[in-house]
């Protein structure tokens, strides 16, 4: 597993705190209050027993995650400004569209998610994704040519074909 540097941990803690106060909390409040007002105005139907509470909680949870998601690019910028950070170097290369390589064991820059709107594409078609490529071949156990009840090549007179 990757070992974070003290500077990376400091920036990640700072990003977590800032994303909560600057994005998640306001988004959660706006969506929660919006859900409450929507139920009161009749746009949403409140629960029979709990009223608008479930809608308000759902809006707050969605707002929290939207806030965290919206702060990712700002946090990535902060990590890119760290001088001796492998993560910062990885993010700088990705931003420039650089080549993908392994920085350390267990820390690969390989394709994790497709980029949205960029020139980088991801495809799962190719020999590296063949499911049988890592399986050892044992001649005595190969049953790929063995006839099955579903195969047309088996024209046995006992089966009445």
TrEMBL record:
| Chain spans, region Disordered | 93-161
Name the keywords, alphabetized. Answer: Membrane, Transmembrane, Transmembrane helix
Write out the transmembrane intervals: 20-39
Recorded hits in InterPro entries, A to Z, give:
OCAD1/2, OCIA_dom
Q: Which residues form the OCIA domain?
A: 2-86
Q: What's this protein's name?
A: OCIA domain-containing protein
Q: What is the lineage of its organism?
A: Eukaryota, Metazoa, Ecdysozoa, Arthropoda, Hexapoda
């Amino acid at each position: 597993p990757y070992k974070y540097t003290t500077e990376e941990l400091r920036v990640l803690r700072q990003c977590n705190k800032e994303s909560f106060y600057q994005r998640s909390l306001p988004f959660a409040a706006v969506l929660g209050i919006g859900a409450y007002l929507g139920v009161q105005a009749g746009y949403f139907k409140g629960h029979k027993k709990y009223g608008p509470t479930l809608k308000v909680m759902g809006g707050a949870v969605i707002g929290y995650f939207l806030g965290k998601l919206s702060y990712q690019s700002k946090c990535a910028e902060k990590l890119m400004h760290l001088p001796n950070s492998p993560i910062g170097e990885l993010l700088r290369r990705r931003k420039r569209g650089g080549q993908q390589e392994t920085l350390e064991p267990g820390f690969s820059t390989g394709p994790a998610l497709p980029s949205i709107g960029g020139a980088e594409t991801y495809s799962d078609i190719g020999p590296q994704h063949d499911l049988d490529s890592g399986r050892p071949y044992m001649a005595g156990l190969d049953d790929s040519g063995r006839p099955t009840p579903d195969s047309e090549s088996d024209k046995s007179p006992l089966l009445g074909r």
